[in-house]
Amino acid sequence: MPACFAALLCWELAGARGLISSLFFPVPSAIFKKLIEMAYSGLLVDQLEITVLRLLIGMFFGGGIGLILGLMMGWSNRLRSALDPLVALLHPIPKIAVFPLIMVIFGIGEVSKVVLISLAAFFPMVINAMAGVRQIHPVYFKVARNYGAKPAQVFRKVVLPGSIPSVLAGVRIATNTALVLTIAVELLASDRGLGAMIWMAWETLRMSELYVGILVAALLGIGFNVLFWICMHRLVPWNPANDA
Amino acid sequence: MKIQCRNLGKSFPNQNGTIHALQGVTFTVVEQEFLCIVGPSGCGKTTLLELIAGLQAPTQGAIRFDDEKDAGGSRPVMVFQNHGLFPWMTVLENVAFGLEMQGVRRKERHGKVHDFIERFGLSEFADVYPHVLSGGMQQRVGIARAFLSNADVLLLDEPFGSLDAQSRTLLQEELLRIWGDQKKLVIHVTHDIEESLLLGDRVLVMTGRPGSIRKDMQVPIQRPRTMESRNQSDFLELKRHIWELLEEEVRENLRIKK
């Protein structure tokens, strides 16, 4: 924290003394002023809303399908051996590279963007959910069966709670990846959203606006991470790591 | 309830062919009996329990359950050596798990469990998660869970194996006390000869792999048995006898020449 303040202070002083170009590197106070200004005008909130909405819709579809499929793949050896090679093959493809193809299929509208963001969220989710079920010690499945648990009960009492730590880690990675892709498609092919705002600020050389965009995108990422940290403590009170 | 194992065998395929874990295991356990099984490590004791619990199927022979009361045959419940408690459930939820799976309603279930863990002196730990408990406490919760389920048959797989000697002694006495109250059929696997003599009505001594029964002996020591029983001459005589049966196999396992 003190290091951050020191860096900001140096930046501010360097800018005030004309050591760095205020055209390309406006001082922090100017950026902050711009942030307040844009927040009040409602411009920022509109762009932020669009970005967050795209992200959440992508997380809902991509993350949701990934979660369910991942849990099933972790649980059923048959499903896993059928689908795992496919997942392993598709996962490393940089999703942004497929964007043109997705636009060919889904058009240049909102659907393509959401499909790409969903795709970005899907893979970390499916992999983490699967790993989460796989790392549950086999004895818990034995205990459940021994006490006569039916498959639905095994799912609710063992598979789901046992995989939560890994699933939450998956949600975090998926959200981060989806955020990257959201900003990327907005830079590439949108006139709305944080990414579009950043790109337009760059094209018109409104540098403080550019920095505001970057700052807000960064805060969004940090915000989500904090949220997961809280969820982890709330949802996994039995995790010994929480006591530390 | 009576359990008859007839000519039980279990083998697993592995890279180098087939592992014969158990072969020709035949014995009968009767209602309310406390049966101990001792044997060298790797003799298939755990496998035998899992066969009886129905968690694995035998590759040979059969197990018969004769239920005189014909009470719908509640399946045997097993206590595992480690890890038996769900880390994501509180002590209360863990102990209640058996009843929950039998469809007992939440309110009734928790009432029963509260009474039960009160008797175990675990009340103040009802709402904590297992990871804060010591190994001995965790195993007591595991045993409480098994005894609370309506099962007529309990299978204990070296429940005290990883505990220190003092805790083990106290838990053995506690186990005897609960069993005295509830009189379920218990099959208790252990590698501790003294433990088998202290707890069991009968002791089965097993051979190394493939596991089979070397000797089936009654323990004629009077109950209630306590620490003092360990010093009786008939106890010591039995202990020496079982040790003689096991010594050769243990030596072979450890490659210690006589």
Q: Which secondary structure elements does this structure contain, and how are they paired or packed?
A:
The complex is a heterodimer of chains A (244) and B (258).
Chain A: H1 2-16, H2 28-41, H3 43-75, H4 77-90, H5 99-106, H6 110-134, H7 138-146, H8 151-189, H9 194-203, H10 207-235
Helix pairs in contact in A: 2-10, 3-4, 3-6, 3-8, 3-9, 5-6, 6-8, 7-8, 8-9, 8-10, 9-10
Chain B: E1 2-14, E2 17-29, E3 34-38, H1 45-53, E4 60-66, E5 77-79, H2 91-101, H3 106-119, H4 135-148, E6 153-157, H5 165-182, E7 185-190, H6 193-199, E8 202-206, E9 213-218, H7 233-254
The tally of helices of chain B reads 7
Pattern of helices and strands of chain A: HHHHHHHHHH
Biggest sheet descriptor of chain A: none
Considering DSSP H and I runs of 4 or more, what fraction of the residues of chain A is helical? Answer: over 70%
Helix run count of chain A: 10
Oligomer: heterodimer
Shape of chain A: elongated
Indicate the overall shape of chain B. Answer: globular
